[in-house]
Amino acid sequence: MRKIYNAAHVYMIIGLVSGFYYREITKAEHFTGDTQLGLVHTHVLALGMLFFLIVLMLEKQFALSAVRLFDWSFWVYNAGLAVTVAMMTLHGTLTVLGHESGDAIALVAGAGHILLTVGLILFFITLGKRIPARREVADQKAATGASAAD
Q1: I want to staple 130 with a disulfide (CB 3.0 to 4.6 A). Which of 62, 90, 112, 148 is the partner?
Q2: Has the keyword Protease been applied to this entry (predicted)?
Q3: Would you list the DSSP string of 15-63?
């Protein structure tokens, strides 16, 4: 559970710093147009911090880490988010500085999105494996007369 908490905490810090970065670089460059930098802040906070806070609650409820696949989902998702956010930041910074971003940035960003998708799929497989296990425990408790709150 600690690594899930740490991931949420790191993404909170990155999310706040990225918002500060967006504000300061656009102000320093007198940039008023649209840039992907404006999206990095919310993407990191939603896909990073909020996602992992929800995962933390699900871990507490369903012991997701008991499934070996959970580690794969955790690291693949994190890799995908890191690549995606890095490419958004690079593309946005280049836009603010008046430079074109090439096809390589789009290609790498696409790979980041693919990793995010694979991580989510692995996460839902993991969650699906734990939900029946949780229900079986409740059914066993009900059969023996123990309350579900025990």
Answers
A1: 62
A2: no
A3: HHHHHHHHHHHHHHTT--S--THHHHHHHIIIIIIIHHHHHHHHHHHH-
- Alpha-carbon distance of 35 to 11, in angstroms, equals 21
Specify the amino acid at residue 143: A
> pLDDT band at residue 141, thresholds of 50, 70 and 90?
confident
DSSP assignment of 70-86 equals HHHHHHHHHHHHHHHHH
Residue 40 contacts residue 92 (beta carbons within 8 Å): yes
- Residue 109 has a pLDDT of 96
Q: Are 105 and 50 in contact (CB under 8 A)?
A: no
Cα–Cα dist 84/110, whole Å:
8
Distance CA 88, CA 4 (A): 24
Residue 127 tokens, joined: 């969650």
Confidence of residue 146 (pLDDT cuts 50, 70, 90): low
